[in-house]
Structures
1.
Amino acid sequence: MTVATPKFGMGASVRRLEDDAFITGRGRYTDDIAAPLHAVVLRSPIAAGRFSIGSLDAARSAPGVALILVGADVAHLPALKSGVMQKQPDGSRAPTRDIPILCRDEVRHVGDAVAFVVAATRLQAEDAAGMIDVDWEPVETVVDTARALDRDAALVWPELGSNRAFHYELGDRAKVDRAFREAASIAHVGIVNNRLVSNYMETRSAIGSVENGRLTLTTGSQGVHGMRSILAPIFGLKKEELRVVTPDVGGGFGPKSFVYREHVLVLEAASRLGRPVKWTATRTEHFLVDAHGRDNVVEAEMAMDAKGRFLALRIELTANIGAYVSQFGPFIPWMGATMSTGVYDIPALSVAVDGVYTHTCPVDAYRGAGRPEAAYLIERLVEQCGRVAGVSPAEIRRRNFIAPTAFPYRTPTGRNYDVGEFDGHMTRAMDVSDWAGFPARAEAAQARGKIAGIGMATYIEACAFAGSEPAKLTLEADGGLTLDIGTQSNGQGHATAYAQFVAGALNCDASRIVLRQGDSDALPKGGGTGGSRSIPLGGVSAARAGEDMARKLRRLAADELEASPEDIELVDGAALIVGTDRRIDYAAIARAAKSAEDRTAFGEFVQDEATYPNGTHIVEVEIDPETGATTIVRYTIVDDFGATVNPLLLAGQVHGGAAQGIGQALMENAVYGDDGQMIAATFMDYAMPRADDLPHFHFETRNVPSTTNALGIKGAGEAGTIGAAPATMNAIADALYRAYGIDHIDMPATPLRIWSAIQAAKD
C-alpha cells in the first residue's frame, strides 16, 4: 500500500515560511535596531604582555563621549567562567582561567579587551578609543598546539608552571597495551585538525538597555534562556530580573551560544547611563575574538589481527583551548573522545587528552563540537588500516562495522547506540556513486593530465542529548496560532519545521502557525539551539502541544455545536461535525473560550539519551599535478537520520554542513604568526568556500528510526560537516597515494600544500 505524503505535516516538502521576509529585506537583526549610544572595544594589539593606561581625560572629553570603562571600573563584575571541566585521572578538576570582562594589567591574546568606549556615534567612539594612551610591554608567546607543552615554551599562565590546562583519560590502557602486544599489524596516523573561524554572515551585535527598571539584553544568540542564566548572576540578579531578547539571527554554528564580554559591557554601560547602548563587531573583530573551532594535534594507532579486524585503538590528543577557558571549551575534546570508535566494533580503547593554553583566541564549540574531530581521526585511521591490511576501504569497514544484530551497543567510552545499519548506507552510497566504475574514470582523468582519487567516510555522531524543550501553543483571537519555544533559529528554518508538527496535529495549513522565539519572558525555560536538538526535542514538544490544542479545540467546538468531542473533526482551520456541514472556524472558537487556559496548549518531550545519526559520504576528486588544484567531481551522501521532517529543509542542512566540511578540508585555516598576530584575520587571507568550489550533491536518506526519540528522529544539523572533511581528505590522499605513494596530507589541502607534497615525492 502506498502512503500519501502529508501536505503540511511531518514528511512534507513545505517551502520555508520565513524566507519572504529575508529575501525582501524585512529581516530584523540586532544591528538594525536603533540606539542612542554606540560602543567600541579597545583591544590589545599584542598577544602577550603587560600594559598600563595613561590619562583618560582627553578621551573622556572628546566629542560625543558618554562613558569610558577600563578594568578598574568593572572590578566588581566577576569574570566569565566555564563550569565544564571534566574529572582528571586522579579525580580532580583542573582550575580554570576565566575571561576578565576587561583586562586590568595583562593581556593574553591579540584582541583581548582593555577598554570600552561609549559615544553618540560609532565614529566618535572610535576616535575617542584612539586617544587612549596605552603603554604595551610585549613578552614571548606560544601559539602552536604541538609546541605548547615543550619545556622551553612561553607560559600563558606562569603560576601554573605549564601550559597544560587539563588532562583527561578514557578507556582501559592495560587492555589496550595487551592487544597491541598481540596484534598481527598496527596502523598509525598523525594528523592536524586545523583551527577554524565560524564566519557567520551576521557579526555579533548587542544592545543593553533598562526597560521598566529591568536590564534587557538584545543580541543574536542560539537561545536566550541559557544566556540569561549566565548573565544574571554576574549582576547579582535573579534570572527573572534580566530579560534577554533575540531578533533574527544570521548564522550561529555554535559560537553565538556563548556569553561574551560585550554582552556584559553593554548592560553595565546601559545601567550606568540609563540609555540603550549598542555594540556591533567588525569582521576583523569577529576573526580575533569570537570563539574559534577545532585546533587539535593527534597521534593514533590501531591494532589489528591477521584478518584486519580491529583489536584496540590508542589515541593521544592535544587540544588547543586558547588563552582562557571558554564556556564549553574543555568539554569539546572530551565530547569528541567519547565518539572515538565511530561506527566500528573496537573491543579496547585508550584515549589521553591534553588541553593546552596558548596566546590565541579561546576555542569552543563549532558545528559538531568534537564529533567532527573524532570522525575525522577514526576515518583517516581506518583508511590507513586498509592499506596496512591490504584490503579495500569498503572491505576494512565491513569487517569492523558494528553489526545490526549487536544493537543496542555500548561503546568502550560508554556511548549507547540504539540502532544502526552502517553497511546498508555504505553499500547504497557506493552503488549511487558508481564506485566500481571509478578505475575507468581515473584512467580518463589521467589522459587529461589529472590524477583522480575516491574516498569515503562512514560517520556517526551523538546529538539531541538528554533533556527537553517545552513548547506553548496559543490560539489567537483571529484564529491563528502562535508557538512559543526556547530554541533559536539561526537560519535552519524553524518557523517552517515547527509549523509542520503543529499543522499535522491540527490538520491545517502550516502558514496558520506563527513561531515566536527569542524572548526569555515568553517561556520560563528553554534549552536553546545546539547539538542538533531543536527538531528531535523541540519538534516532538511542538507536536505534543498541537495534540493538546487539538483536544481543546474539539472540546470547545463540541460545546458550541452541541456535539460530542469524538464527533468533531479538524479541517483547514475549522472544526466540523463528521458527516455534516455544521462547522465553526478557529476565530469563533477563540471567542467562545471562557479563559486563556482554554486557548493555550503545552507540550514537553523529555529524552533520556542522545540520538545517533550516521551515514556515508563518498567524494571523487581530480587534482592537477602542475598546480595542486583540487576539483570535486562527484559527491554522494546517504544518511540515516531516523525520520525526515521536511526533505527540502533537510537537504539544505546537509548541503550547508558539507560545504563547511569541504571548506575545512580544502582552504579554511586560522593562522597565527609566532608573535601571536593572527595572519588570517580578513577574507583576503582566510579562504571561504564559494559556490564554484562546491559540487552537485547527491543526497538521499536510508533511515532507521531512533528508538530513543518519540518520533524516531535523530537530528541532522551537524551531520554534513562531520562526514565531509574525512571523505574529502580520504579522496585526496587516495589520488596522491595512487600517483606518488603519498599516504598522508593534512588539512587544509591547499593547492600549494598538494603541489609541495608532489614535488617532495618526485625528489
Note: The radius of gyration is 27 Å.
2.
Amino acid sequence: MPYVKHPLIKEKSVEARVYQQVLAARVLERGNSLVVAPTALGKTIVALLLSAELLQKHPKKKILFLAPTKPLAVQHQKSFKKFLKIDEEKIELLTGTITPKKRTEIWDNSQIITATPQTIENDLLRGRIDLEEVSLLIFDESHRAVGDYAYVFIAKRYMKQNKKPLILAITASPGSGEEKIQDVCKNLFIKNLEIKKDSDEDVKPYVQEIKTEWIRVNLPEKFLVVKKNLEIFMKEQLISLKRIGFAPKSKYMNMKDLLEIQRQIRRDIPTQARTRPSLFTAASKIAALIKITHANTLLETQGVSSLNDYFERMKTATTKAAKSLLRDEGIGEAIIITKKLNDANVIHPKLLELEKILVQQFKANSDGKVIVFNHYRDSIRHMAKYLKNVKGVKAKRFVGQAAKSHEKGMTQKEQIATIKDLKDGKYNTLLASSVAEEGLDIPAVDLVVFYEPVPSEIRMIQRRGRTGRFGKGRVIVLIAKDTRDEGFYWAARAKEKKMHNTIKVIQKTFNGQKLDSQTTLGKYMAPEERVLVWVDSREGKSSIASILEEKNAMVKVRTLEVGDFMLSDDVIVERKTVEDFLSSMVDGRLFNQLVLLSSNCNSPLLLLEGSIEDLFALRDIHENAIRGALISIATNYRVPIIFTRDINETAQYLITIAKREQLAKDKDIRLRVGRKGLTLAEQQRFIVESFPSIGPTLAKALLGKFGSIKSIVEADEKKLREVEKMGPKKAKKIIDVLRSKWEKD
C-alpha cells in the first residue's frame, strides 16, 4: 500500500489516495473551496494534507479547525496528533469549558487549534484572538454555515482580518435547494466547488458496497381503530379551517405547513379579530390539529407506547387546545384504546422486525456492530427496554445533551464513554437519536437501521455513511405501509437526487466564472467612519454582536450595570424582544430597568424587537394593559420606544444612533456606566471622568498630558490649565475637590 510522503506527516500513517491529494492541490491552486463528499471518503485527510503543506511553508502561522461539537473537535485533535510530526503540545483544543485566560494562552502557543465555533466567536468579539495569523481555516459540517450560526461571523471576520485567507469547507451534503447551497458558498466566501461521488473512477477503489433494503410492515388492526378516530378528528378540524379560509397544502398535512398556518392566524388576530371573530375558532382548531397530527405520526411510525406517553403528558397540560381535545369523544376513545393496548404490551410490528434483524445479524457475526436510528427519545427508551432481554443483543441508548420533557440527556462525557464501550464490545447496538448522525467519532458499523425514514437528504446521507467504511455495509429502512413513513422516504430520495443535480449546476457556474468578486462581498466603511458600541455581556451571547461586527462597528463586550448597549455618553439602550417585553412587564423587571436607565443617562432608549401584532397575541394579556404600559414608558418614565422588525433592523438602528452620537458630535463614550470588567486604561479614564466637569475627551487629554492619575492629582491649577479646553473654572473645581478638607454632611 503506498503512503503519503511529506516532511510533516508521519511515515506510513496516511494512505496515498490520488483523489485526496488532487483535492488538496486544487484548494491551494483555486482558493477558498467547498468539498462535498460522502462520509468515509476522507475529507479530514484532505484537511490534514493542506495543513501539513501550509505549516511547512508558513511555520509561524496557525491552522484553525472548527467543528460543531466538542467531541468532534476532540476527534480532529486526536487525528492531527496521530498523523503529524509536530509537537503534540502545539496541537490544542479550545472549547467553552476552558477559562478565557487559559484559552488566550493556548491560542498564543499553538500551531494547530481545533475548536467549537461558538468559543472562537466569543473570543473574537472580546478581542482575545486575531485571525490574521491563521493560514488555513477549516469548517467541518459546513452545511451549517447559514443564518446566524457562528461559522458565518467567523468567516467574515477572517476575510477582513487576514491578508492571505484560505478556507476549506467540508460536508457530506450541503442541502438540496440551490438557495441553501448558494448561501453556504456566499457565507464562506467560496470560490471553488469540488464534488466527489462513490461512482467516480478515482474513488471507486476505496468505496465499499452498501446494500440498502426496505422492509415494509402492515399496521395491526388494533392500531387502525385508533388511527381512524384520530383521522376523523383531523378531518373535522381541516374542514372547519377550510371554511374559515385556511388549509394545509400537503396531502399528509405536513407539520411545517400547519405551523405556518398557525403563525398566519396569530398574525391576523390583532388586526382582523373584530371583523373576523372566526379567527379565534381557527386558532383553536389549528392547535388541536397540530397535536393530533403528531399523535397520528407517533402511532403510525413508533407505536402505542410512545403514543400513550404523549397522551399522558397531554392530560397534565393546561392549554385550552389540550383541554378541548380531552373532551372530544373520539379522542377520548382513542386514548382509552391506546392505554389498553399499551398495558397489553402490544408493540409496533417494526419493533418485532427490528428484533429479528438484530438476532440474525449477531448470529452471523457475533462481533458485529449496529446503529439503530430513531427520531423520538420516547421510542428509544421503549426500544432499549424491549431489547434488554433479547439474547445476543447488547443495546445502549445514545441521545443528545438537551433534556426533553421528563427525560435527561447525555453529557458529552457520557457520549464519549458510550462510544468507547461500543468500540470495546461492551455494547453491540446503539439506539441513537439524530446526535449520532453528524460528526461524532462512532466506529464503522456493519449495519445501520432506519427505524423510520427521514424527510431530509442531509440526515439520510449522514445516517447511511455510518456503515461501509472498511468493509461491505448494509442499510435497512423500516417502513409502515400506507403511512407518512412512505412519504418521508420518497421525499428524502427526491431531495438527494435534486441535491446532486443542483451541485452540478452550481459547480459549472464556479468553473465558468472566476467569482473573485466573492472575496469582496463586504463593502466596509472606511476606518474613520467606524463607531464603537459597548455591548453587555449577556447580549454578547446572542447573534447581535456578530451582526454589529458585520456592519463594521467596533464591538466591545463588557458587563454593563445599566442597559444592553452604550452608544455615547448620553445614550444607553435597553433591547427587548416582544416576548421578553411581555414577560418583564408581568414580573415587574421592566419598570425597575427603566428607572435605572433614566437615572443613568440623558437619553435612554427602549428598542422593542418583533411584530407589533405578536405584541398583542403572544401572551394572554389584555391589550389595554399593554397599551397602558407603552404609554407609561413614554410619559411617566420618559423613555422613547423604537419598534424594530427583527435583530438585523435593531443592529441597524444601533449603528445609525452611534454614528449620530459619535461621528456627528466627535464624542467619546463615557465609561461611568458599566464599571465591571474594564481594562487598566479604561479604569484610569473611569476615575478621571469622575472629576467635576470632566468628560471622556478631557479625561484622555489629562492622562495624555500627565501620564498617570497620581501626576494629575499632584499638579497645581496652573499646570492643569495647560491642558487644551481646561478653563480656569474647571481647573479650580478640580483643585477644590482634590485639596479641600472633607466635612461630614
Note: The two ends are 89 Å apart (CA to CA).
